[in-house]
Amino acid sequence: MTNVPCLYGHRPAPGRRGFRQACRPSWREDLCPIWIDLVVPPCSFRVFRDHDVAARRVVGHDGNDIPCFQAYDYRRLDVRSDDDEEYYLAVSYSESVSAWRLHDGRWLVHRRIELLGDEDAATTAMSIDERMPR
């Protein structure tokens, strides 16, 4: 396991990939204060990493071990060059999603998408879905 920081939280303790770890994500970070009492708070978290692409996912579970929070981020890296002599990796697409299960079973979803060169023009949206985002 690498020393990659946990999504929305502190670096996880060493452990098996995909299993509960000592990660306490800031699950309220993208949540407006008016929604706090309407969502099911997570008691434990599972952290999943993809070592082949720049992607991570955190799933929070309630006291009954049912998912009630999910956050993931994905970044697509492309090879770039300013002078056709030196090459480097640059983010060409970035997407992050935070989702919370409401007490009525629906999901409140916050999505942010950013394209290369459009750092100030990121698209953000809040929606309510019937299912947990995948």
From TrEMBL:
The name under which this protein is listed is Uncharacterized protein
Look up the domain of life of the source.
Bacteria
